Amino acid sequence: MARTKVVIIGGGFGGMTAARFLRDAEVVLIDRTNHHVFQPLLYQVATAALSPTDIAWPLRTLFRSQPNVRVVMDDVVSIDRSARVVRLRDSAPIAFDTLIVAPGSRHAYFGHDEWEALAPGLKTMADAVYLRERMLLAFEEAERQRAETGMQDRLTFVIVGGGPTGVELAGSLIEIGRKAMGPDYPHLRLEDLSIILVEAGPRVLPGFDPALSAKALTALERMGVTVKLNNPVSAVRADGVMVGNEWIPSTNVVWAAGNKASPLLNTLAVPRDANGRIKVRPDLTIPDEPWIFVIGDSAHCLDRDGSPLPGIAPVAMREGQYVASVINQNLPPDQRSPFTYTDRGMLATIGRAQAVAQIGPIHASGFLAWALWCIVHVFFLIGLRNRIRVMSEWTWYYLTFKPGARLLFEQPAGRPHSSSTQQTEATAVEDRAPTRRAA
Amino acid sequence: MARTKVVIIGGGFGGMTAARFLRDAEVVLIDRTNHHVFQPLLYQVATAALSPTDIAWPLRTLFRSQPNVRVVMDDVVSIDRSARVVRLRDSAPIAFDTLIVAPGSRHAYFGHDEWEALAPGLKTMADAVYLRERMLLAFEEAERQRAETGMQDRLTFVIVGGGPTGVELAGSLIEIGRKAMGPDYPHLRLEDLSIILVEAGPRVLPGFDPALSAKALTALERMGVTVKLNNPVSAVRADGVMVGNEWIPSTNVVWAAGNKASPLLNTLAVPRDANGRIKVRPDLTIPDEPWIFVIGDSAHCLDRDGSPLPGIAPVAMREGQYVASVINQNLPPDQRSPFTYTDRGMLATIGRAQAVAQIGPIHASGFLAWALWCIVHVFFLIGLRNRIRVMSEWTWYYLTFKPGARLLFEQPAGRPHSSSTQQTEATAVEDRAPTRRAA
């Protein structure tokens, strides 16, 4: 039998796991960056606690020992089902026998895509580095204004979305802001820093047990985070957000609410859910295409109880493993057992020695849950080197409160503008390079 | 006595050292970035061997324990000697009693400033990150073209300037390219990679003893670097460089030749040398201004034998220390002993286990010089944390040849363009964000 040619779109948790388990097929793994990111720790890059290289790995290096995997760095523009090729922005089209679609998602702005520029999200390393720059610049700017004018405006960060990303970001920001950065900005008083977490629903961490949500809320408020529940954001402007009937002035709004699947999925022309995810069949394929699989944040896949599986790393990884196994065995559709997912629990960290854990019947919070969170996250980081780095960074930070990644680069001139269009976004070119002033 | 107000322009080796030794005065340290960079290791960031955070420190953190030092992140636009203020781009003017001018230098393009966009230099962290992106993109692009078309053009990097930076960059690039990156790009043959080091003069490392220059040349050529001596670059275009009478096609040209002092020095209106450096008096002050000091790459300061001191970190640090001592003692001009510098030797690394060292009468090369280089550079890195990180990175890389910092970020859209004008450069806004394609 000739080796089947498998194309994987996306090097996130789903696509990377599928590639790792595909030991026989000829695999082409396409990603628009050159690296895999450990997304659950992105918020720590955004708050300068970790460095980008601590939680990302070049895909080529990851697949060095797998000669059957070819890595292509490019944007997928469309999927041509009849011609059996994916079309790329820069490279020649790539043919496939089997396709695994795992392009991930962006945040959902609920019909207000224009808010993204004002309230950036946190899905990629580029997002994290951009948020880090905004945060550091905000502190520099506040310090400068206080030193010169004694201005008394508060330094306000608004985080939209009370899920794990929003909670982790809020907790991390107030810790960094109050304890670590305070001593560095002599004109800022610690109480001037205001971190506001906005959640449209009635509680933070809605995926968790209500008792743990309550514990997380208490922990956040004790740390100094202002939590506003039961009110959606109705407007975002450059100078603030409208939350319910309240106008909150802030030039630092971060979006951590909702998921919107990649527009690339449009080109498959199959039914999708309200978030744009494809309603996959029990074997994760699309209708009438037994060899086109959709996994990760792109798949609307039903749990045993009929609710869709959440867009989290463990689900994507299990899906990647399942699809690889189907392909490795060359199983015809009628011989495939449906994909199943066993929930191994959920963890969310709030701050130093503060977390919540929900593992089957076991619900925990506080230091124990936090220790568990640390162990689990370090365990899942790929490769010894990064484990040691992250462990040492955390130990260092825990002991000293000096985050190690607080760099802002200057803006040199005279270099050519490079541009790139994004299939999933508008075609605006932007300057993500760290600059003195965020527009 | 009221505390004197000292303003320091620049947080490089000179300015940072001066600030550290100024224990009594009220100090304002101005830098256009928020960090101090250990410049001698910038080439390792450019070749992805180290991460930016490994060799840079936020200035605010460095001066946390010195409450007399205030850090301001801004661009100095001009120095007003009569009003005794420095004018800044964003902030209000800052008054001084005593001024220390240490803005550093850029590379000299010998009257061809338009070459900078085509052949970027390596002076700042932003430069290093930009070069890293160009290098990684060049490999990605070559791999892509080979995979699609079998194109046989060589992947050529030209490095202009045979001083320590050029030699270190050339050695590091060929190592990374041949040994570490080779296995990751299956369509590239190792012999396709061509690293060409161009030096206008008759030997590499012209500051060293001729015998050591010869050893460095032999080591570079044995590693596979092509060295072209005795020919200046006469033209730079987007598709190559003209070296003497030879046209070298290359889309990856790096500039590591010469120094040009900051244009900010113009605003002092005092005599300067051919490189734009100010001819300082024996106490490092400018004519008729006993309390305006110029140090580091900005100062043309004569050695005991009448030759100007080189623009290297040890000189800048000694100058910073000397100026701080004069200010701390409030010495009138006639009581100041002239600045003197005792050469403590020079080191340059070429590659793994390859370096040259010249310390007084001791001249060494090979592994011993390299071990010395490692010890000296780690010793001078500030702070335990970064020492451990750099040591572990080097050990890791030495053992595995897997450089750890090879990340390219995608280009998100929808974010505001930020712009910044540079006092030392044209006002072009550029996008240094990693992109798929370097224009």
Top keywords for this entry?
homodimer; 439 residues; alpha/beta; 9 helices; 28% helix
Q: Which structural class do you get from the secondary structure elements of chain A?
A: alpha/beta
Give a short account of the largest sheet of chain A.
6 strands, mixed
Given as residue ranges, the uncertain stretches of chain A (5+ residues, pLDDT < 50) are 411-439
Shape of chain A: globular
H/I helix tally of chain A: 9
* Average pLDDT figure of chain A: 85
What does this molecule look like?
The structure is a homodimer of 439-residue chains. With 439 residues, chain A is an alpha/beta fold. In chain A, 28% of the residues lie in helices and 23% in strands. Chain A has 9 helices and 25 strands. In chain A, the strands form 8 sheets. The first copy, chain A, has a 6-stranded mixed β-sheet with strand order 5-2-1-9-21-20, covered by helices on one side. In chain A, strand 14 (233-237) and strand 15 form a beta hairpin. In chain A, helix 1 runs parallel beside helix 7. Chain A is globular. Chain A starts with a strand and ends in a 39-residue tail after the last helix. The relative contact order of chain A is 0.16. Mean pLDDT of chain A is 85; it is low at 411-439.
